[in-house]
UniProtKB/TrEMBL annotation:
HTH tetR-type domain: residues covered: 8-68
Record keywords: DNA-binding, Repressor, Transcription, Transcription regulation
Gene Ontology BP annotations: negative regulation of DNA-templated transcription; response to antibiotic
Protein name per UniProt: TetR/AcrR family transcriptional regulator C-terminal domain-containing protein
Length: 218
């Protein structure tokens, strides 16, 4: 009789299956044993492709970051920020259970480091000093990660009676029904406010004789 075939493993199949487990049940649900069971192999077989669970998580996160688009910085810094943050938010929204890991920083993830480098480079080429480029990148990330971690509108229960004693929230029970729209529009409002403020700041920056950056008096 022919020998039973062993499912072929590949790094991509391992990463994709691991991501499916995380998407369905959260970060803590992923284990090498459960992953092996899902793939139909022995756990020992996985270690021919990935050394540890932590390494696997980093590879999964690195794959998700590949979807983040930083090409807009070739146009101008504001376009770059819009495209980068919107695609970043979309990548996180597609895999919300992975957000706590992605929010910790680029670590040694190649795709994350390359995108951080592209963002920083795009900002400094546009005339932003190094320190400001770093702070702008951080500020934009706070906006993206914060919007991906939780839904503002979805946090209001759709129980009209709950707000009877709260005259300024008398329509808050309607928010949950429109949560996705409100959350998306709120992200856009914050993003455009950030860019508008940065445009003003960019026009005020001036180089001092000692090489330091200051702001023009208003």
């Amino acid at each position: 009789m022919p020998r039973p075939t062993t499912p072929r493993l590949s790094p991509e199949r391992i990463r994709q299956t691991g991501l499916e487990i995380i998407d369905a049940d959260g970060l803590e649900a992923l284990s090498m044993r459960r992953l092996a069971e899902r793939l139909g192999v022995r756990a020992a077989s996985l270690y021919n492709h990935v050394a540890t669970k932590d390494e696997l998580l980093q590879e999964i996160a690195n794959g998700v970051m590949a979807a983040v688009d930083v090409s807009g910085f070739d146009a101008d810094w504001a376009t770059g920020l819009r495209i980068w943050t919107r695609s970043y938010r979309a990548a996180l929204a597609a895999h919300p259970n992975l957000v706590p890991l992605l929010a910790t920083g680029p670590d040694r993830r190649e795709n994350a480091l390359q995108r951080a480098d592209a963002v920083h480079g795009g900002l400094t080429r546009a005339g932003w000093p190094q320190r400001y480029a770093t702070m702008i990148g951080a500020s934009a990330k706070y906006l993206v990660v914060g919007s991906a971690l939780a839904s503002f509108s979805g946090g209001f229960p759709d129980e009209p009676g709950l707000y009877d004693e709260l005259p300024h929230l008398n329509r808050a029970h309607l928010l949950r029904e429109h949560a996705a729209e409100i959350d998306a529009d709120s992200f856009e409002l914050a993003l455009e406010a950030l860019i508008a403020g940065l445009r003003t700041l960019h026009g005020q920056l001036t180089w001092a004789p000692d090489g330091q950056v200051g702001a023009q008096p208003r």
